[in-house]
Amino acid sequence: MDTLEQISSFLVVLGYTRPTRRLLDEHDVVDRQVQQKASAMLDRGYGRLVSYESPEKGYEWFGENPGHEALTAYGLVEFIDMQDVYGGVDTQMIERTAAWLKSRRDGSGGYKQNSKALDSFGRASADVTNAYITWSLSEAQIGGIDKEIEHQSQIANTTTDPYLLALAANTLLNANHNGGPKAVERLMDMQGKDGSFPGADHSITRSGGEALVIEATALAILAMLKDNGHANETREAINWMNEHRGGYGQWGSTQSTILALRAMTAYAAASRKTTSSGTVGVMINRQQVGHFEYEAGHTGAIEFEGLGQYFRPGQNRLILTHSGTDALPYSIAVDYRSVLPATSPDVVVELKTELAKSTVPIGENVRLTAVLTNKTDKGQPMTLARIGLPGGLSSQTWQLEDLRESGKVGFYETGEREVVVYFRDLEPREVKTIHLDLVADIPGQYTAPASSAYLYYTNEDKFWVKGTSVTISR
Fold first, then answer.
1. Residue ranges of the alpha helices (H) in 17-142?
2. CATH number for the domain harbouring residue 412
3. Which of 154, 274, 282, 295 fits a 20 to 30 Å CA distance from 76?
4. What pLDDT was estimated at residue 38?
């Protein structure tokens, strides 16, 4: 989904790795093609990012009205960060965005929220929204927010929520407030034995599950680094983050990935050391299946691919070995196919899909009905349904546009054999029904890939439903 936040997470990778690329450039080890490609991506990405400015100012996931205060605050930080690595950032746009955010202050240390947005289920609490916006403004070094900073000082003294406290601690440290070190001390008392910072109620995006713990832990790492002198606690948190990184370099949702990248990059900058040579090996079921020797200054990932042939049915044991003086982070990515993946026991939504007919002549339409249900008595934040389409059938753009323009879906996108629809929020027990009139294009017998539904910011918990089948006759 090309939303503001997804484009932002892509630019975070390019921007936050710029210092590393600059260091490598000094030692003449940068791939020039990669460098040029990254610069071109920054150009395109920035253009996409600014396109999400709302007509009434501020920014919103899909560039519509009303502007979303917290998302605008995040966008502001992103634009400020980009100024260090990209010369095309519009300073007038930054001033306009900061002015809009400051115009949303309520005079009591918090911020107004658009009345339309307040009606949305899944909206973050006032405390979380206020803390996130003030943190973002302080990260961007925007002045004139003394009352809002002082309000965060009060929150830091009383809250027992690690996410809230981490936001407040970062804000106070950014502002050189004397309450910053005390806030960090309180925060460290909330660190779990595994190095993470669990126990938060919710984040700005109403993240849940592991994504929420990642966000709180990333913010805690940033605060501890700013306060200095917390090497052991910071290292334990970093180790936990490394253990919970996905095989493809992501940390759950876009928001948790963005914050994780911030934390990991800040830690790398604070603890940079000279690399040395070493050896990495892989064993599967006591068989040596991979070996790689690297020299000092080696760049890029060390990858062992095609290991699937060494696995057997049932349990397998994989061992990574490393000889060298520098610790190396690692991840394991597993690709597999399943007709029907297992549904998470913690998922809060369910999905049903049905084709009106199992046989349809070529050139005619057949209706696919998808029913998405919030199973809980609580409102839910942004939710999506990935609806699998049988081969030989295609969706109709005019119908998808009509769903978006009528407000039945917040956004949609199409992929190979699927239509993805997004809902900004779900009311308690709400049921959403979507009809897609698919066109029979190619004769044959087809089965769709499995469909799924999940909360956008808790994407580790998915509901899966078997793909529909159809026969297209001549």
1. 18-26, 32-50, 69-82, 91-103, 115-118, 126-139
2. 2.60.40.690
3. 154
4. 56
Q: Which amino acid is at 330?
A: Y
Calculate the alpha carbon distances from 106 to 99, 112, 113, 242, 412 in Å: 14, 6, 9, 40, 35
Same domain, 355 and 262: no
Query: What is the rounded end-to-end Cα distance, in angstroms, of the chain?
Result: 36
List the structure tokens of 120. 């949305």
Split at pLDDT 50, 70, 90, the class of 327 is confident
Same domain, 124 and 243: yes
8 Å CB contact between 165 and 198:
no
Whether 51 and 185 share a structural domain = yes
3-state helix, strand, coil split of the chain in percent (to 5) is: 40, 20, 40
Structural domains counted in the chain: 3
Q: Which token pair is 297?
A: 């200054």
299 pLDDT above the threshold of 70: no
Segment 131-149, tens digit of pLDDT: 999 999 999 889 999 999 9
- Whether 26 has a pLDDT exceeding 60, the answer reads no
Does 73 lie in the same domain as 179?
A: yes
Q: pLDDT (tens digit, 9 = 90+) per residue, 144-196? A: 999 999 999 999 999 999 999 999 999 999 999 999 999 999 999 999 999 99
Q: Does residue 107 share a domain with residue 57?
A: yes
Question: What is the extent of the structural domain holding 419?
Answer: 349-473
- Do residues 285 and 264 share a domain? no
Q: What are phi and psi of 250, to 5 degrees?
A: -105, 160
Give the pLDDT confidence score for residue 29 in this predicted structure: 37
122 pLDDT more than 60: no
Task: Mark whether 108 and 172 lie in a shared domain.
Answer: yes
Highest mean pLDDT among 60-64, 250-254, 358-362: 358-362
Q: Please check whether residue 308 lies inside any domain of the structure.
A: yes
Name the pLDDT band for 413 (thresholds 50, 70, 90): very high
Classify strands 463-465 and 451-455 as parallel, antiparallel or unpaired.
antiparallel
CA distance 163 to 139: 16
446/172 Cα distance (integer angstroms): 59
Residue 54 shares a structural domain with residue 184: yes
Give the integer Cα–Cα distance in Å for 243 and 414.
33
CATH number of the domain at 240, please: 1.50.10.20
- Parallel, antiparallel or unpaired: strands 469-473 and 359-361: parallel
